[in-house]
Structure formats: structure tokens, C-alpha cells
């Protein structure tokens, strides 16, 4: 696939597993702040595991109609549960073995037994390696991925029991761009890139339902994403967890919209290998 891309698959997934937060409203607000036109939309109002399964099933159906396998896919989603479905597109069109780069302030590696809060958005990465919620993976037609094919970037807020799970699965963690690029070479598989906006510092993005001190400044985020996308291995990207209610002055909206535009342009102009 040596030719340049002139367009990509662009989806808006309006779902949050938690009805007490407003992350389900984030995707539409973000896409409205850009000049981009989605090729597909999915909306799911039921919270909890039921909604998670529903949105996974809806995407499986939508995938077959609205995604062109010859082009990369960008999806703006609610909380991180929706990011599971990105792997559905990767595995359906690019094979079962994919390299998942999970950029997030949180590890999202909890299970129902390890989580103190019970927040489903803190569990999707564990689900993707087969540690919990097999019914969600089944609805989305996803096979669990080996933990050795996961790279966790920028994580700075980990629960104690979650830390034990990460050690058990030997998940690779980094906050270094060069080591991430080396991982892309070493794993040598199509890349699914998940970007949770809470990895950004609160000065850049105050719109975080679960804020954590520290994080990437805007220049660091652009540099990281540009270098990963320039490897031409990225086939699917999800951007998640923008909470409009916490963004009183639209600072997060402006910065995240700029990031989405950058990802779109990079995916559009860089060929997939």
C-alpha cells in the first residue's frame, strides 16, 4: 500500500458506561468544533455492561458497511470502554495480531474484583488481553490479544491491585517516545493507537472526569503522535474521555480538537504499511 491517502474512515461513538458523567456528550462536541465530516456514527444511551455490549454489537454491524479496509480509521469516542471496539476493526481487516499502544493517565487494567470504584472505563485494557468481560469481546468479535503486544504510555495513576495485574501480565510501560518507536519496530504488527485525553496536563485539558496531576503538555502530545503516525504502521486510532462539563472555558475543546485535526491529517497523508 504505497499510495498516499486522501481520506480516512471517521467515526463518532457517543457512549459512556457511567451515566453520572458526561463523556457520552464529548464526541459530538469535539467533532462539531472541527471541519471534519464523520462517515459513521453510533449512539448508545444504556449505561453499564449492557450498553457496552450494545455499542460493541452496533459497531460490528457498522464496521461491515461503513469502513473501507484500505484506509485508516479514526474514532472519537466517549469513555475508554468504547475504545475496545477499535480492536474489532483492526482484527477484522488487519489480522488478529496487532500492537496496541494505550496512551492514558490510567492503566485501565482493573477487573470487577480489583476495582475500588467499579468504573467500567477503568477495565477495557484488561478486557482486551482476556482478563475480564469476555461477553463484550464476543459481541465485538474480538479475540484477546497477547499482553506482550501492549505498550502502555504515560500512565501515572495506578490502583494497588491494578499494579499487581500489570506485573502479572508483564505489560510494557513507557513514557519515552524513542522507546515507543522501538517497540513499534520490535513488535512489528499493525498498530492500534488509543489516546485518552486525560494523559494531557490539566492546563492543556481541564475536561477530565478522573484528573491526575502531571501529564503531557501540548507540544509533547503533538510530537508523540506525529512520530508514531509517521511510522506508517497505525491503522486505527481512538480519542476518548473528553468531559465537556469540566471544560468551562473550552480550553480542552480547543486543544483536543487541534489534536484530532492533526491525527486526521497525518492519517490522511501517510500510507499504511
Task: Explain the overall architecture.
37% of the residues lie in helices and 15% in strands. The chain is an alpha/beta fold and 273 residues long. The chain has a single domain, classed as Arginase, Chain A, CATH 3.40.800.10. Strands 2-1-3-8-7-4-5-6 form an eight-stranded parallel β-sheet, with helices on both faces. Helix 1 (26-32) links the parallel strand 1 and strand 2 (40-43). Helix 8 (218-229) packs parallel to helix 9. The chain is globular and about 40 Å long. The model is unreliable at 1-6 (pLDDT under 50). Belongs to the arginase family. Pfam families: Arginase. This is Formimidoylglutamase.
Provide a brief overview of the structure:
The chain has helices spanning 26-32, 48-66, 84-94, 124-128, 134-139, 160-169, 177-187, 218-229, 251-269; strands spanning 9-14, 40-43, 73-77, 99-103, 150-153, 172-174, 191-196, 234-240. Helix 7 (177-187) runs parallel beside helix 8.
Amino acid at each position: 500500500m504505497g499510495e498516499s491517502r486522501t481520506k480516512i474512515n471517521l467515526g463518532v461513538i457517543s457512549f459512556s458506561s457511567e451515566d453520572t458523567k458526561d463523556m457520552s456528550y464529548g464526541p459530538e462536541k469535539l467533532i462539531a468544533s472541527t471541519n471534519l465530516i464523520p462517515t459513521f456514527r453510533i449512539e448508545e444511551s444504556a449505561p453499564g455492561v449492557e450498553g457496552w455490549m450494545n455499542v460493541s454489537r452496533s459497531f460490528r454491524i457498522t464496521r461491515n458497511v461503513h469502513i473501507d479496509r484500505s484506509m485508516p480509521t479514526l474514532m472519537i469516542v466517549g469513555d475508554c470502554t468504547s475504545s475496545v471496539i477499535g480492536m474489532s476493526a483492526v482484527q477484522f481487516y488487519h489480522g488478529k495480531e496487532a500492537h496496541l499502544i494505550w496512551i492514558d493517565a490510567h492503566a485501565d487494567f482493573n477487573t470487577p474484583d480489583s476495582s475500588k470504584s467499579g468504573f467500567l472505563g477503568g477495565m477495557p485494557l484488561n478486557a482486551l488481553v482476556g482478563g475480564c468481560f469476555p461477553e463484550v469481546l464476543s459481541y465485538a468479535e474480538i479475540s484477546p490479544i497477547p499482553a506482550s503486544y501492549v505498550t502502555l504510555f504515560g500512565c501515572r495513576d495506578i490502583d494497588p491491585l491494578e499494579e499487581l495485574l500489570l506485573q502479572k501480565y508483564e505489560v510494557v510501560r513507557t513514557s519515552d517516545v524513542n522507546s515507543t518507536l522501538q517497540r513499534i519496530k520490535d513488535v512489528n504488527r499493525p498498530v492500534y493507537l488509543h489516546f485518552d485525553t486525560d494523559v494531557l496536563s490539566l492546563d492543556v485539558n481541564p475536561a477530565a472526569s478522573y484528573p491526575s496531576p502531571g501529564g503531557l503538555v501540548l507540544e509533547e502530545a503533538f510530537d508523540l503522535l506525529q512520530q508514531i503516525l509517521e511510522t506508517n504502521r497505525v491503522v486505527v486510532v481512538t480519542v476518548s474521555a473528553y468531559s465537556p462539563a469540566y471544560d468551562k472555558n473550552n480550553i480542552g475543546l480547543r486543544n483536543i480538537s487541534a489534536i484530532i485535526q492533526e491525527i486526521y491529517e497525518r492519517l490522511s497523508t501517510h500510507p499504511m504499511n
